[in-house]
Amino acid sequence: MPRDTSGEKYLILKEMGETIDMTFGRVHLDTGKVDWLHRPHNISDGVGAFTDLLNRDGNHISEQPLMKPGAVPSLWQRLLLLRQHLKNMRPCSYDWKFYRPSRGVGTSLAWTLFDRDATTALLDYARANKVSLNAVLLQTLNEVCCDTLLSSPPEETVWTIPLNLRGGASAGNTSSNVTASISLRLPPSSGARFIDERIKSIYQQGVHWGAWLLSNLTAIIGKRGFRFLAERAKPVWMGVFSNVGSWPMPGYSHPIDDNLAYMGAPPVTALLPVTCCSMTWNQRMILTVQLHSSISDDVADTEEVMRQWVRKLSQLAGLKAAELRYGLKSWQELAKESEQF
User: Cβ(165)–Cβ(208) under 8 Å?
Assistant: First the structure.
């Protein structure tokens, strides 16, 4: 199997004391029971891991969501795009209400399930405003995190957004790490239209290919070189917002267990202290939120971010937030209950 250099950075972060596991939840809608699972990020990215989980559960997933990233540019072009990507990664400081140097653990994971009607209502709101649902989710998330987690308004916030580069890049197999993360810098009170246009601009410029080069940096400077840089990295990001996509793809004909819904969550680290994910299976979306122990020592903080995020989304789409299904799990509970796959 070819070397997955994009996944090697996670092993280095693990050596530095960080958690690198992605968390997944299989929700049984009739009972509310959640089966917790995890997959080390050095093995797969979110799309690859979710594909494996779905097929393990008896589905026949042969097609994955693609974003048509285009052909891989020449090395010289990627170096120029890397320069732009690094400019978007300029250090940024945040006045956290709570802060302590820490590595390795989060506080808890909060989640909310939107049924089919609620998911459709959010999509309809985004379409009516001629923006992507991602832009609406990130706009409201950014507002909530600034209000809930910071003591004073920031000059700007920076979010990292993983992009699935399948269809342009390859990394061995469908489960490997074929994702590069762009950095989106947002001025105060950024609206969904601004966010949508900024993401499209970065994508149209091809900056994701500069990010792909950085994601595979161990192939160029080696693992020791990457660790040297990682240990000296300065704070940049408020966190990560990941959308694993809407599954299954159109035309899927295999029977689906209508009693199951799924959620996912990227690993939370000191440099990415807030991690949030959107995952849609069988027309039901689940949002997740995690906070790192460096910015929170209370599971109630995670729950508050989730509830305020859902409240804002519900107001926009005309939903009743109190009728949505919530959940909260501490990291201690996840460690005991989660199964690696």
Answer: yes
For residue 326, what are its two tokens? 């919530």
Cis peptide before 69 (omega within 30 of 0): no
Please report, in angstroms and rounded to a whole number, the separation of the first and last CA atoms in the chain.
19
* Sign for the pseudo-dihedral over CA of 331, 333, 335, 341: negative
Amino acid in position 61: I
Q: Is the pTM of this model over 0.90?
A: yes
pLDDT on residue 102: 84
Q: Cα–Cα distance between 58 and 68 in angstroms, integer? A: 28
The tokens for 302 are: 């995670």
Q: Please choose, from the candidates 283, 274, 332, the residue with its C-alpha nearest in 3D space to the C-alpha of residue 308.
A: 274
Tokens of residue 180, six digits: 């590069």
Instruction: Supply 151's token pair.
Output: 């003591």
Architecture of domain 5-340: 2-Layer Sandwich (3.30)
Mind listing the pLDDT tens digit for each residue in 229-287?
A: 999 999 999 999 999 999 999 999 999 999 999 999 999 999 999 999 999 999 999 99
Question: What is d(CA 100, CA 192) in angstroms, rounded to the nearest whole number?
Answer: 32
For residue 184 the two structure tokens come to: 């989106």
Is the pLDDT assigned to residue 32 strictly greater than 70? Answer: yes
Q: Considering only the C-alpha atoms of the chain, give the largest distance between any 2 of them, rounded to a whole number of Å.
A: 55
Tokens matching residue 172: 């061995």
**Considering the chain, what is the average pLDDT of its residues?**
94
